[in-house]
Structure formats: C-alpha cells, structure tokens
Amino acid sequence: MISVEQAIDIVRINTKPIAAFELKKVKDAYGDILFEDVLSPINMPPFRQSAMDGYALHLNGSDSYRIIGEVKAGDGHHPILKPGEAIRIFTGAPVPDTANALVMQEKTAVDDTRLKLKSEVVQNENIRPLGEQVLKGQTALNKGTHLTAAAIAFLTSLGITDIKVYKKPTIAVVVTGNELVEAGQHLAYGQIYESNATMLSAALKCLEYNNVSIHKVSDDYKSTLHLLNQVISDYDVILISGGISVGDYDFVEKALDEIGVEQLFYKVNQKPGKPLFFGKKESKTVFALPGNPAAALSCFYVYVYPALQKMRGHLDFSLTKAKAISKSNFTINVNRAQFLKAIYTNGEVEILDGQNSSMLHTFALANALAYVPETSGSIKINDMVEVILFPIN
C-alpha cells in the first residue's frame, strides 16, 4: 500500500497529453485546449484606433483648431490634417495618420467649425496604436491555452475561423454489482439504486466530456473479463466503479491482470478510497474506483480529474488547493490520510458530519475536500488545513 503523495506522483508521471488533434471551428471550441501556438494573421487593431469619442488633432502648439470633418467607426476614408486642423471622431474609428493626438469631447468647447481646448493635450494620447494587442505574425495564444469565451472572442477578432485543439480521450464508465438497479425501476429487497454512473458522468461534464459511454456488468468473472477486454480495446480511459476490493465476488483486479493491464498501484493509504487501482495497457489508462459513492467521487477528484486534464493538454491540470482555518474539531481514528467532505468559505473550512464512504448526502452539501495527512491525528478549531476545491461549473 502506497501513500497519497506516491499515488499522485505515479498518476502524474504516467499520464501525458494525447498526441492527436482535431480541427474545430473557433465558435465551437469553448472549453478545448490549443494544440499549437496560434499566430495572428493581422495586426490588432489593424489601424490606429480611437479610444473614445472626441476630436483627432494635428497639434500645432495652440489651443485652437479648425474642424474639417468627421470619422466614425467603420469609415474607410483617410482625411489629411494639416497642423492646426481637427476632425470629429468616435470610439473605434480609424485615426488618420496625420493626427497625432486625440482629445475627449468633454475637454473641448466647439463653436461651429472652431475647436478650443480646455486643457493640455499629450501627443498620441487616446490613440490605440496599430498592433497594440498583437502584431501580424506574432503569437496570439500559446499552445495549452484553455479556450474560454474571451479567448474565442479574441481569435474571432483576428479573423481566425479554424484551430487545432487537443483531441479529448474517449471514456468508458463500467459499473459492477448484482445489487444495482436503475432509478425508476422497482426496488426489490436487497437492491439499491445505481448512482455511480450518473455521478461520474456528471463530474465528467465539468471537463466538457459529454459523450461518456456507460456499461454495466454483473458480479460474474467471465462477464467482467469480456466487458473489460472490450472497453479497453475501444476507449482511451476506463473508469471502473466497484468490484476492486477483496470480496469473493470482486473480479475486477483478476480480470485486468488477465487482460494484460499493468498495475501501477493498487491500494492507497487513504480514507475513503483505499482499494483504488491505477494501471495502463499500452496507451490505455485504467482507474478502478471503490464502489462506495463518496469514496469513488473523492478518488475521481484527487486522481482522475488531474489525469484527464493533463491528457487533454491542460497546463494547470490539478484542482485548486487552498489553506484554510478550520472551524471544526475532527478526530482521526485510523493511521490513514483523510479526505474529508467540507464547506470552504472565505479562507475558513467547516468539516461536515457524515464522513462515511457511502454517504452522498454530505458530499452534496460540500464544495471542498479537507486533506489531512496520515501523520496527523486530529483537526482542532483554528488549525490550518489544506483544502481541495471542487470545480464550480
């Protein structure tokens, strides 16, 4: 059995971005990761641009100028200003090359075609220079950039319509258990409603994985072996829920070994989620998560989430961590690292009741996991605690 820190390192070392891209329309690439640097095909702005409504001037050292016309946003004409001349101009409009200053309208007085300055004007003031944001041929966005709404707008403003983004790994979720039935069906004695597939699918949607393949298998060795062999052939990442412990009807570890999955670790000194398996078969990645829902979701956030983020090209692939002041006392009864469901607010953390690995109700209220290393025996009020923040989307 290995430590949490060792397990995290093994996952990090053995996952890397998928060396494949897909070409996408910029407008459809929200949430994707750039596969390569994007060079700007134009200067941005593509002309000297007015930063406000006012008057463009050809300075002559005086405070009085003759107004010879106007330029509004979208105009394509290029008035020539002689020293002592001005034009009315509006935000976003092209500034004539012969203008060397721009004064906001509030700092002027106008009488017919004469403009009088109310204050001193600085040369090139309020003029956005050609290529102020990016010059033609320069890197607009770097490889690994997460394409937010602002990034997509920026690329679109450069006239770019298609980009290469990292291809996301395909994912299969395999749920094991004879006792599981679908919600909405009759619940017989001894059965429970299956929730892990829905839970993991919802967690994956935070990573923009919307086409996750769901598979269910009974606690039977031949069926488990057949299904796992199939999904490992067809998908890049396999998340298995349950069947990985040491019970008489837990067949996942044996089946993975027979299929030829290399075990990189099995069992982590943590609570919840001790029976966690991580392995590889060639380019395929396998996580076998505990069947208890809260344990499975804790392992997802700590290990699976950063692995998937790294695979799809994210430079910052782990969940956000913070230090927080504990508002709770909590006694640790086992010599294992703890991931405790908690509520984090403004630098403080409250450890919730109901930390059992099967309890989702507490998890539904939490927005963070408080991490307690295996060497710590308890948490006291006002102790400084490390917290792992859940994604907010």
TrEMBL record:
<keyword id="KW-0500">Molybdenum</keyword>
<dbReference type="Pfam" id="PF03453">
    <property type="entry name" value="MoeA_N"/>
</dbReference>
<keyword id="KW-0501">Molybdenum cofactor biosynthesis</keyword>
<comment type="function">
    <text>Catalyzes the insertion of molybdate into adenylated molybdopterin with the concomitant release of AMP.</text>
</comment>
<comment type="similarity">
    <text>Belongs to the MoeA family.</text>
</comment>
<dbReference type="InterPro" id="IPR036135">
    <property type="entry name" value="MoeA_linker/N_sf"/>
</dbReference>
<dbReference type="InterPro" id="IPR005111">
    <property type="entry name" value="MoeA_C_domain_IV"/>
</dbReference>
<keyword id="KW-0460">Magnesium</keyword>
<dbReference type="InterPro" id="IPR036688">
    <property type="entry name" value="MoeA_C_domain_IV_sf"/>
</dbReference>
<dbReference type="InterPro" id="IPR038987">
    <property type="entry name" value="MoeA-like"/>
</dbReference>
<dbReference type="Pfam" id="PF03454">
    <property type="entry name" value="MoeA_C"/>
</dbReference>
<feature type="domain" description="MoaB/Mog">
    <location>
        <begin position="172"/>
        <end position="310"/>
    </location>
</feature>
<dbReference type="Pfam" id="PF00994">
    <property type="entry name" value="MoCF_biosynth"/>
</dbReference>
<protein>
    <recommendedName>
        <fullName>Molybdopterin molybdenumtransferase</fullName>
        <ecNumber>2.10.1.1</ecNumber>
    </recommendedName>
</protein>
<comment type="pathway">
    <text>Cofactor biosynthesis; molybdopterin biosynthesis.</text>
</comment>
<dbReference type="InterPro" id="IPR008284">
    <property type="entry name" value="MoCF_biosynth_CS"/>
</dbReference>
<dbReference type="InterPro" id="IPR036425">
    <property type="entry name" value="MoaB/Mog-like_dom_sf"/>
</dbReference>
<keyword id="KW-0808">Transferase</keyword>
<keyword id="KW-0479">Metal-binding</keyword>
<dbReference type="InterPro" id="IPR005110">
    <property type="entry name" value="MoeA_linker/N"/>
</dbReference>
<dbReference type="InterPro" id="IPR001453">
    <property type="entry name" value="MoaB/Mog_dom"/>
</dbReference>
